[in-house]
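S1.2 Input.
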Amino acid sequence: MPTPAISVAMSVFNGERFLASAIESVLAQDFSDFEFLIVDDGSSDGSAAMLREYAGKDSRIRPIVRENRGLVASLNEMIETARAPIIARMDADDICRPDRFGRQIAFLANHPDYGVVGSWSEDIGEDSEKLVRSGADHPETHEELLGAIEVGGQLICHPAAMYRRDVVRSVGGYHAAFRHCEDLDLWLRLSSVTRLGNIPERLLRYRRYPGQVSSRHATEQQIGTAVAQVAWRERRAGRPDPTAALDRLPPIDELDSLFGRPGISRQVREQVALGLLYSASAMRDEGFDLLVSHLRDGGRRDGMWRTVARLVRFGEPVRALRLAATLTTSTSA
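S1.3 Output.
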């Protein structure tokens, strides 16, 4: 078989609700020279049957149906399985604009110094309704992206990314320790070996809904993000990155030992605690305990009384009282 120009990499786990629209948006691309790798990562719903049905209709689809191994393992498996030199990421709940692949592969052809290109995105809801966006769009140029790294800003929307396979393989692919923020860690590592940017067009419709990973695993995602940023600063300073060979990140209290100097645990705890104040799911799980620990450790208190009121709105009156007591105690102290 001739080598395709692009390998599309998509993993699905119990995603049949949105899977058909995601697959069809890929098959409808104006640029059609691609293979479509889809891993069914141990789904218990009808996802695998749906993949087989679509594969029977379009020979470009290469389904991989197996037991659950997690997204990072699935992504690395598809990178190794891909036959094309260019990989286009896609998620099973998003929708591509028909000209997405054509616009991105043309960019990489015209910019050989860029290893990764993403795009802006349009937010949609559960029923594909358009949502009002808030905040800045992703940076366009590599220089702007480096500036965003410095301030902890957005870099590249993962399901909108297209990258050169060999460049990603050269840095070891996705790292298992950074589950739920594996893309950020990859972009940070790639930023020192290639150029990264975004096309300022909304080539992907990005679905936001309560059941998505960023909602269900907000605390773990924020912890991984903070540690990935610490690891990036270590590499930039010429120090070894102790996270590179880890399968899982240690508890926050062990980060000083991992990085070999004091202050890292407190720094990560504060960043995570302050980053989760508006997340209802995080304030209902261990994110709340992190926040209380941060305050008892003498951390920043600005805006915390508003968080008490927010907890009431989240339907967590007991935690609201606990936070109020913590604030009162720390003020008295």
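S1.4 Remarks. The first helix runs from residue 16 to 27.
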